[in-house]
Amino acid sequence: MAINIHYQDDTGDHERDYEQWRGLLLNVSNAPKPALRLRTAAGKRMRLDAGDLPLLWAEIDEGYSGVSVYRNLPQHQEWLPAISSTEVQHIASATSGQQKKLWLKHFAQALRKVDICCLSDGLWSLEYCDGSQVYHPHWRGKHRLRDWHLGGGEEDAQLLHAPVVYLDWCMSGNGQVLNVFAPQHRDSGRVKWWRKLARAGQLPPILVWYIHGLNAYLILDGHDRLQASLLEGVRPGFAVLTSFYEVAVQGDPRREQAILHQVNLVAERIAQGIHINPDSFAGMQKLLAQAFDHRPMRRFITRSTANLQPQLWQDEVSAFMHQQGKPEAFYVEGL
Questions:
Q1: Which residues face 48 on adjacent strands?
Q2: I need a surface site. Which of 95, 249, 250, 294 has the fewest CB within 10 A?
Q3: Are residues 287 and 305 in the same domain?
Q4: pLDDT tens digits, residue range 43-53?
Q5: Phi, psi of 287 (to 5 degrees)
């Protein structure tokens, strides 16, 4: 049977403002064993496979100050169905807000049809992130997705091609978007087409998967679009896919009643014609909503299997470094 992905509008959780559209909430069931899977060894070492092909290896520093990533960078593959010009034009005719929702629905539907996929049973969020922001699911709606240097400069080209990357976590993480396939030639037909759409302001968002063990985002769909946006100096949008589980929120009856009592006092004063500062009234409304908000909290995770032998990981990375000529790591500064 095919994977079942039920999606609906996502208005966030207990730690986010109520009734603000965040993207789509995906409830995945009947998922086969993911072909795109993360395997760990001894806690701080990991390997990401696409079927039988290792895409990357990674190792977290002893002091948890950063992570070294060793990328295989195979030739480009299309995991999701190709986006057609007809679909681009259809979505481009909608309003800006509707475009975001339509693209997220496009990706949610496309993920039902792929052979190489990271989805497993459970809850996932698919959020739109404007490229002018940074995004990170851990910081209560604050955004921690690093902006690329735009304009196709030397640093961009080095990062796209670097087999070894060091992500400095510094004090606030890293949030880098990483390609998992080797970039195509800048004059390839697909890149040229995306560059044309980027100039027209019609570039679809790039689908990325947040990996918590890397504190970074891996591109699932949109390698050529990222390259086109960098060459054109256009900031892309991102569709951010993240898995999570929910933790129940227990209400505090004493606190709820105390807040409700204060609200009733304010209501009586308004009824008596006493002027109430609008800011104070708005704050009281927000406090009331929060006090009675029993939506569960989300805890974001990246699911993995701890079945990778440490010696095997070491042997594979040593062979990879020897094959690549022992390159120096491309350093990516922390946020």
A1: 38, 56
A2: 250
A3: no
A4: 799 999 999 99
A5: -65, -40
pLDDT at residue 282 is higher than 80: no
Instruction: Report how far residue 165's alpha carbon sits from residue 155's, in angstroms, rounded to the nearest whole number.
Output: 12
Instruction: Provide mean pLDDT across the span 171-192.
Output: 91
**What b/e string do you get for 29-52 counting C-beta neighbours within 10 Å, with b at 16 or more?**
eebeebbbbbbbbeeebbbbbbee
User: Within 10 A of 293 (CB to CB), how many other CB atoms are there?
Assistant: 15
Per-residue tokens: 184: 């195509």
Are both 277 and 142 inside the same structural domain?
no
Cα torsion at 173, 177, 182, 185 (round to 10°)? -140
Q: Give yes or no: residues 141 and 180 share one domain.
A: yes
Task: Return the closest-CA partner of residue 148 out of 178, 128, 190.
Answer: 178
Both 225 and 92 in one domain: the answer is yes
Q: Which residue from 2, 44, 27 is spatially nearest to 306, judged by alpha carbons? A: 44
- For residue 278, CA distances in Å to 20, 30, 294 come to 22, 50, 26
- CA nearest neighbour of 335 among 133, 150, 162: 133
d(CA 130, CA 132): 5
* The pLDDT value given to residue 146: 64
pLDDT at 274: 83
- Identify the domain containing residue 49 by its residue range: 4-248+297-332
CB-based contact 152:138 (threshold 8 Å): no
Both 134 and 273 in one domain: the answer is: no
How far apart (Å, rounded) are the C-alpha atoms in residues 330 and 302? Answer: 25
What are the structure tokens assigned to 195, written together? 């560059």
Residues 163 and 264 in one domain: no
The Cα–Cα gap between 119 and 65 comes to 29
Give the C-alpha separation, 39 to 304, whole Å. 5
